[in-house]
Amino acid sequence: MPKTAAKAKPGLSNEQILAAYRIMVLSRKTEDKCSIILRQSKGGSFQISGPGHEAALAAAAMVFRPGQDWSICHYRDLTYALGLGVTAEEIFTGFMAREGDPASGSRQMPSHFGHKALRIISKSSCVGTQFLQAAGRGTGIKHDKADEVVYVSAGDATCAEGEFHEGLNWATIHKTPVVFHIEDNGYGISTHWSQQRAQPLMEWVSGYRNLARFNPDGCDLFESYDAFKAAHEYARSGKGPAIVISKVVRLWGHSSSDNRKKYMTDAQIAEESKRDPIALLRAWIIDNGLADEAELVALEAQVKNEIDAAAERAEAKPFPAPQTAATHVLYEGEDNALRPRPGVEYKPASLGEPVVMIDAINRALHEEFERDEHLVCWGQDVQDGKGGVFGATTGLSTKFGTERVFNSPLAEATVIGTALGYSYKPGRKAVVEIQFGDYIFPAFEQIVNEVATARYRSNNNWPAPMVIRVPVGGYIQGAMYHSQCIEATFATRPGMMIAMPSNAADAKGLLKAAIRGQDPVLFMECKNLYRQERAKSPEPDKDYVLPFGIGRVVREGNAVTVVTWGNTVNICLDAAMELSSRGIEIELIDLRTILPWDKDLVFKSLKKTNRCMVVHEEQMTMGFGAEISARIMEEAFDLLDAPVKRVAALDSFCPYSKPLENAVLPQASWVIEAAKKLVKW
Length: 681
Ligand SMILES: Cc1ncc(C[n+]2csc(CCOP(=O)(O)OP(=O)(O)O)c2C)c(N)n1
Fold this sequence. Notes:
By secondary structure, this protein is of the alpha/beta class. The protein contains 23 helices and 21 strands.
């Protein structure tokens, strides 16, 4: 065994060193046991493991404080998780996909660590998203003025994801207490690091001001411990984040589906084996007289017995009941401002002067920020003097301070990822702005794979209700990139609620429900309606909260039920007046929210009209009208005297020139023609 004593400067007691060795052995033997269980087909189908990373992770676990500091872990962080206090039985429970897995309730693959009591935040499978969430959690810690630090880890290839740099950017701008841990084993599955970036990681991150950088030999417990201790202290001091780039080896394949021999030579594999951190520490312990061979053999045997017993206990647990497969997609409690209570009629207690929609939104934000000191807002240009490109956030930063309301970098994934990290703490909520719906797509992954899945993937342990306000829609000569409607694109994914109000009063009440509610919300604001006279309404009082899923009958009729929302409400109203003059009375329903949508109200109306038309601004193909139409066919076919008709934008992009725009977006004349045909059916 190589002697490492000369190199190491422990700074740790003998007990601590032996405890670290024990955790590393526990981790390795847990992996060994998992490999056996996998071959025995006892419930799991996949293994991704961390042999070679143990020393760096055991060192980190000695520094971070369980239940006080926060962690978002790489899938190779078993040693770290065990070191913080996750038990081997809990690991096996998840590995065999049994009931009681604290990470995800066996909803995610193994090694997606999560533990509420230990503050290990649920991690999705998407590599790179965690950096922004950690940076945002760091912002939360600063707001709370708490003595807490965030640990966030990933492999080195993951640093090629833009979110790595976005996370560092945010953390260094705001000097948030985050320790980034990069476990540099030189490979991303089979791709060598030289195909990921042109220079070593330490050089690559050298341009960030306020960032403390450490580059220990991650196979050496002592070097790693010194690095994490210094990084943790630096982050706690308020000077900024730190990064620890641990040089480690990946002693096994990327996962149970990978064979290193496909892309590494036998010589390379043998060379890496020489750096096995457990063998190195074991030799050091013996060389330095902390324990002899016989004592270590006894310790290892004891760990193995513990593991076998833990695995047996886990195996005895039942699999999760199939009836629970779709629970915790959304909040299931009664106390949710987003959900209507049976029998309650939602009306403002009093009404003020008429306001335009943008002012109603602005007032809702002011009132809610007054009411809850833990609300925060960021986005591009949201801070005063600008107060948002449309003015929705005007006055907020002046009134509530730039600690709570401030400009974000021009990076949409940053806006959402950091907001999610902030909102992971119960009682903390970010109400952020994406400047235009057309530019929400850099944040698509953070929204659909992270925000929307948080509750489900953690089995209800890490919900993160937050609000994303986003101006959408056309009719303003906004052309292709300032006109898009995006509600159906997002409605294909569960885990969020979606609003799209058509007037000021609804916007105010719905936004308040979104802010006070328990689920993440995409709040879509038609910018065409922001200052439109027709979208004005008397302003509801500050306690008016309008839950989602309650449609509004805008106009009663008996000939055709017309279902719509957002910009097309007024277009349908124009059509309704024209049709009325020809003796056709349509019943116009404004859904207000599309997730959930008020099916009961639509079906009730259909009982009267027996004909239905859905009108929306988004394109026809796979627009939300397709969903409504399909539901009606499936559940209310016997109410229909004619097929459900859809009126929607052409399957095109929205062009700039007015005659072209008019030819693409739904017009009142289209609704009139469709209604005339429907009544003749
Ligand atoms: C966004 C995303 N892209 C691709 C994948 C598939 N994938 C999972 S792990 C991985 C390699 C990651 O390599 P690295 O960051 O170096 O970590 P290591 O596995 O070496 O510890 C890839 C490509 C993923 N999970 N997420």
